[in-house]
Amino acid sequence: MGDVVEESYDVVVVGAGHAGCEAALACARLGLETIVFTVSVDSIALMPCNPNIGGTSKGHLVRELDALGGEMGKNIDKTFIQSKMLNKSKGPAVHSLRAQADKQAYTREMRRTMENQEHLKIRQAEVSELVTEELGNGKRRVLGIKTTSGAVYHARTVVLCTGVYLNARCLTGDLIEYTGPNGLRSATHLTDSLKKNGIRMFRFKTGTPARVDKRSLDFSQFEVQKGDVPIVPFSFSTDASSIQKEQVDCWLVYTNEKTHEIIRDNIDRSPMYNGSIEGVGPRYCPSIEDKVMKFPEKNRHQIFIEPEGLYTNEMYLSGMSSSMPEDVQYKMYHSMKGFEHVHIVRNAYAIEYDCIDALQLKSSLEFMDISGLFAGGQFNGSSGYEEAAVQGFMAGVNAARKCQGKSPIVLDRSQAYIGVLIDDLVTKENHEPYRMMTSRAEYRLLLRQDNADLRLREIGHEIGLVSDEEYQRTLRKKQLIEAEEKRLRDTYAGANEAVNKFLREHGSAELMSGVSLADLCKRPELTYEMLQEIDPERPSLPYGVGEEVGIEIKYEGYIRRQMQQVEAFKKIEAKRIPEDIDYYAISNLRLEARQKLSRIRPENIGMASRISGVSPADISVLMVYMEQFKRNKA
Amino acid sequence: MLSDTICALATAAVESGIGIIRMSGPEVIPLASKFIRSRSGKPLDISETHRIRYGYVYDGENPLDEVLVMTMRAPKSYTGEDTVEIDCHGGVLMMQKILEVCIRNGIRLAEPGEFTKRAFLNGRIDLSEAEAVGDIITSQNELALKASVSQLRGAVSDQIKKYRARILEDDAYIEAALDDPEHISLDGFYDKLKQDVDEVKAGVDRLIATADDGRLLREGIRTVIVGKPNAGKSSLLNVLVGTDRAIVTDIAGTTRDTLEEQINLSGVSLSIVDTAGIRKTEDTVEKIGVDRALKAAEEANLILYVVDASVPLDESDDKIIDSIKDKKCIVLMNKSDLKTVISEKEMHDRTGSPVLSISARARDGIDALENLIRSMFYHNEINFNDQVVITSARHKALLQNASAALREVQKSMEAQMPEDFYTIDLMRAYAELGYILGEEVSEDLVNEIFAKFCMGK
């Protein structure tokens, strides 16, 4: 036997999807020698499903990631082909940016960024083994990884971002192919090694719709969907004026009774219904057969037709995810208006893969029982590019900090959607791919996409991934906002004819005596922007500042109430639970609570209280016990 | 968690000379000062520690009760926090009213064992007592839950469940539309939501109003007389009510066919439920009577099982005996003046409960019965404590919170705020109503969204 290749790094990242890229870039940018493994260099930052970044609550994640110093926002700003702010008619907390990407350009740009990053190496190889050593007490420490060729890569920390590739198989009807997405090879060795290291695995499932040839569609039958003008960038570092450009159109079409009849007639041929899929699929991203069967009262479903890029005729059919056999897929599509002559380029398919039970992770995304091993992305049981990217970033940052001997960065539920996402993953039992939703964020009025920089730039700067210059810009923005808010509170509109004429014109009650501009701004029919007319002394301010001032003044009462809730939340979140606590020794805890707490090992009382099956009385008992514990130690 | 101010009865919720209401927390002095005033209604300074002041508890602008107030400043108090105690007149109704005044002024009802828990967390109780604190929380919590559930059986809890379902459905609809705006539209939803919120709020407000009327019924040891028709239940009730030591009030029951009598046996309050309204002897009707009696018995603190000793036991007795086997019970062998065919020993063996022979008609054995009840109460054999009152005040407070949250939704709607603002208070109302039923919120919303709405890609 010849010599095997043996190399040493600070950080090994396994996988170069959206999680892996963020993890690898974060580590390398923090100065750590980093190597990232992928089964195919051509599939770096691949978008194998929908051709867009952002959307409700996901747009928040991208903004937050950007504020912290991640790459996704910058990369989509370089490669988008249509952009839209969703929910604009609703409150500012749920405005959400979504951009259609040119998929190839997205991949190419991210690859370019990765390839030119100092301290970062890319390696195409399948990682087959996790190398660890026993520390005693059921704990292990990671030492590195091995690839299928037998090469050994020593590392101080390892970040697993294997996405949907572990033991992946794709299903179209009764046709099963043992590949990852898009026919890419799956990774078939690592799961066994992970299990040997005591890691609990799940099997999840997701799906993607067919791609069709643009030339085979009759666009006169569809409703056009235009992008926004002007375009708002994702990244706080992108100059908005630099990205205003021609946008492509998307289109809307509906399924009909005929489509549904075809589905119902063939339902026993869908692997998800005939039992040949064992993985658990997501409820929020149902296949078309799921929608038809679960909502029989709906006689049509919306299908969005979205281009996959500028240099391809392939169109993505959002809403048509399916695992029906090929012939049924054809029949389904042919039944739709404008699809009579459709040509399918790629079939829809369902994909099954191995992922972990994320309850094994700490909030830092390090495994509780394997020191130095971190995990991010779909491997943790989430779904979506954005959810993956933010986890990869946090896992990467914390892996790097571990190497540097620094304490981990953990965002809580009151700081960021990222905090909500990770907290949910590591404390709540999750039986399907987890998707971010605005309804999951308790304090969403504070966690807006517009103020992600104000919330998180400082932390990004502290991590070391936000430059001094960018940080200073945020500080300056903060000052301008505060000054303008103060000015609005201190500036009074008199009960004069000019003001009352303005109010009459906007259907607002006239003034009997002077009122501050801030109070006027709170009237439902008026906005900060409108008030410009009666506010001659208003300074000229950058867009972001005015937007912030308008929101914070107008919704002040609600924001204050949420901040009070956050205060209460922070208090119980600050009560840390000792790591070596033995729940079985606390006789007053109910058995279910003891079992759950022992398994999940929450880091503080707040997390413990969010575990289902742990009652308020259990929490009281726990607090009493902790005090006892503390005094015993003292 | 430890930063708010709490209150509770420190004495048992029974008719007595003096009742004590204890309040504790960092804000207790300013909060209590809002309703404790001088006789003339002027502000009363209660900030000085370890001093007793004389004053009045005011309900809004009306004096409610003449009281003594003692303040103990942190750390020299039972809990280690600022504490205020009110010595008031010991009527159950009065204590309840004062508690409600506390709640209205921002002092929340204590959770079971919470005073003791705070005392421990603030270092006022030493380590050796810590185990006991845990025991208290656990056991009190179980009791509270039991009391809460039993009070809510039937119509009221069904109604609250319906309200919750309506709120959740509406909230999920809004959330689904926020998460998937391209597939789910809120057009025209405003009117439906407005109707739902208005109706649910009106319903909650009605429940709050009935909480005032119905409260007395829940006070005292809930005592249910069961037995077959003609066993002598009514006679027994008449004797108990008619005794010159008993104070009697008549209140129509919450259910149509039972009558509750509030009596006081030398300091022990009993709320006696007479299930004897059914007199017909046709089998089906008799069966209904037995079933109703059994249902009332389920919620009882104490059962008086009246047996006609002059006729043999039959199937109905078997059923009664079976259903009361886990209950505190006294078996009364009535008609002891006639020829008996069942022995006391036989009844004791079958029920495991104390057995007394009485003659309701001749008033024989009634003194012995009263003595037995009193002795069971003072030896804590009857599972009755202040939980019954606490939980009802607790329910009322929670209903008021829910109503206030729904009012916020109405205000947001009137102000034409965007829909996502409604959800904040809708979910608060949902959670408050959930606390009444002892149900958690956690994943309800997400589950509802996925169950009812066709989401995404």
Key terms for this structure?
heterodimer, A: 634 residues, alpha+beta, FAD/NAD(P)-binding domain, Elongation Factor Tu (Ef-tu), domain 3, Arc Repressor Mutant, subunit A, six-stranded antiparallel β-sheet, B: 457 residues, Gyrase A, domain 2, Four Helix Bundle (Hemerythrin (Met), subunit A), Rossmann fold, seven-stranded mixed β-sheet, 14 helices, globular
Detailed description of the structure:
The complex is a heterodimer of chains A (634) and B (457). By secondary structure, chain A is of the alpha+beta class. In chain A, helix 2 (58-68) runs parallel beside helix 10, helix 3 (72-79) packs across helix 4 (103-115) and helix 13 (468-490) crosses helix 17 (543-554). The longest helix of chain A has 23 residues, at 468-490. The mean pLDDT of chain A is 93. Chain B has 457 residues and is α/β, with parallel strands linked by helices. Chain B has a 7-stranded mixed β-sheet. A 7-stranded mixed β-sheet of chain B has the order 9-10-11-8-12-13-14, with helices on both faces. In chain B, strand 12, helix 9 (315-323) and strand 13 form a beta-alpha-beta unit. The chains are: A alpha+beta (634), B alpha/beta (457). At the A-B interface, helix 18 and helix 21 of A face helix 3, helix 4, helix 5, helix 13 and helix 14 of B.
How do the strands and helices of this protein lay out in sequence?
The complex is a heterodimer of chains A (634) and B (457).
Chain A (H helix, E strand, L loop, with lengths): L5 E9 L3 H12 L4 E5 L13 E3 L3 H11 L3 H8 E7 L9 E6 L1 H13 L4 E5 L2 E10 L2 E9 L4 E9 L8 E4 L2 E3 L12 H7 L4 E8 L2 E3 L9 E3 L24 E5 L2 H9 L5 H4 L13 H7 L7 E6 L6 E5 L7 H9 L9 E3 L2 E8 L13 E2 L1 E3 L9 H19 L13 H11 L24 H12 L4 H23 L1 E2 L3 H9 L9 E2 H5 L6 H4 L11 H12 L1 H18 L17 H10 L4 H5 L6 H18 L1
Parallel strand pairs in A: 1-2, 1-9, 2-6, 8-20, 9-21
Antiparallel strand pairs in A: 3-5, 4-5, 7-8, 8-9, 10-11, 10-19, 12-19, 13-17, 13-18, 14-15, 15-16, 16-17, 22-23
Helix pairs in contact in A: 1-10, 2-10, 2-12, 3-4, 6-9, 12-13, 13-17
Chain B lengths: L5 E4 L8 E7 L3 H6 L2 E2 L13 E9 L2 E11 L10 E7 L2 H13 L3 E2 L4 H8 L8 H22 L3 H25 L9 H26 L6 E6 L6 H10 L6 E4 L6 E7 L2 E7 L8 H16 L3 E7 L6 H9 L5 E6 L9 H8 L3 E3 L8 H13 L8 H28 L4 H19 L6 H9 L5
Helix pairs in contact in B: 2-12, 3-4, 4-12, 5-6, 5-13, 5-14, 6-12, 12-13
